Amino acid sequence: MAIELIVNVLLLGFSIFCYVYVGSTMPESAVNELGAEQWPQGILILLIIAILYNIFKFFRKNKMDEIAAAFQGFPAAIVDFLKSKLFIGMVLVVVMAMAYEPIGFMLTSFVFLMAYGYLLGQRRIGFLVLTSLLITVILYIGFSVFLGVMLPRGQVSFLREFALFVESLIPAF
Predict the structure, then answer these.
(1) pTM for the model
(2) Contact in structure between 44 and 38 (CB atoms under 8 Å)
């Protein structure tokens, strides 16, 4: 319960910061048009309203003594959260995002899909390897070939050469 309130307050603060940051860094558009700074600010205003409503609902639903008791049990809840599959999944996503450029799309995607499948409970390694490889190839073809998105090939020489080899196998449309 306490973590819900803390996350909402942190999201509110971050959303307000982003609103101010976008307004101060983007060039102003003409008065009669919606510019590049107004679209994100509009979305952020909707997000801020939704977070404020969520905080209001939180206080309306919970009594103050229950909230105080939840904050006393907060350290134990944090430890439980850090051991949860949800947190481990979030860490996997962050590691994938950081490894994406240096290692490249193919290996990063393959390892991420295997690790996430294992986290979700799949213990058959052969099945994990096959499905991860198949999904990686489908994602690569979908984004690189059909959508024309340049996916990172990696900065490690043999991984880069492998990505270029795979690209040469797939005909361009």
Answers:
(1) 0.63
(2) no
pLDDT, tens digit (0-9, with 9 covering 90-100), for 32-50: 777 777 888 899 999 999 9
Residue 132's closest CA among 110, 154, 116, 150? 110
40, two tokens: 């994100």
The full 3-state SS of the chain, as one line of letters, equals CHHHHHHHHHHHHHHHHHHHHHHHHCCCCCCCCCCCCHHHHHHHHHHHHHHHHHHHHHHHHCCHHHHHHHHHCHHHHHHHHHCCHHHHHHHHHHHHHHHHHHHCHHHHHHHHHHHHHHHCCCCCHHHHHHHHHHHHHHHHHHHHHHCCCCCCCCCCHHHHHHHHHHHHHCCCC
**Where residue 172 falls among pLDDT bands split at 50, 70, 90?**
low
pLDDT tens per residue, range 129-146 = 999 999 998 998 888 878
